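Hi all, long-time lurker, first post. I run a small reading group and we've been trying to get comfortable going from sequence to structure in the token notation. Rather than ask abstract questions, I figured I'd post a concrete chain and ask someone more experienced to write out its structure so we can walk through it together at our next meeting. Sequence below, copied exactly:
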Amino acid sequence: MKQYIVFLVSNFATFYIVSIIETMKPSPYTVHYENLRIWLKQQREESGLSLRAASELLGRHHSVLGKMEQDRRKIELSEFIEYCQLIGADPHEGLDIMINSMKASKLV
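-- Answer (accepted) --
Happy to help. Here is the structure in token form:
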């Protein structure tokens, strides 16, 4: 028997009933993204740039880059390439890491 905790959420007088199961869905971020994030952070640190310095050069708030590195925000492809260029990393290497991670998980 499914148990429900009902949350009533108002959106201009429309109410939605959401089950607790739906509110506890796993994160959309995968281990593949985690491998990419670790690589991105290592590349930034090897370039000698702090998070704040990189964000200033990129013209973004440091919290945006921090969220990218901390698995709190998905990484758009165009910003990934721009970030790689900024820190002197090869975006192909980062994509290879993600592709290899995805291939490895299918073999398990």
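A couple of things your group might point at:
The two ends are 33 Å apart (CA to CA).
The chain has one domain: 31-107.
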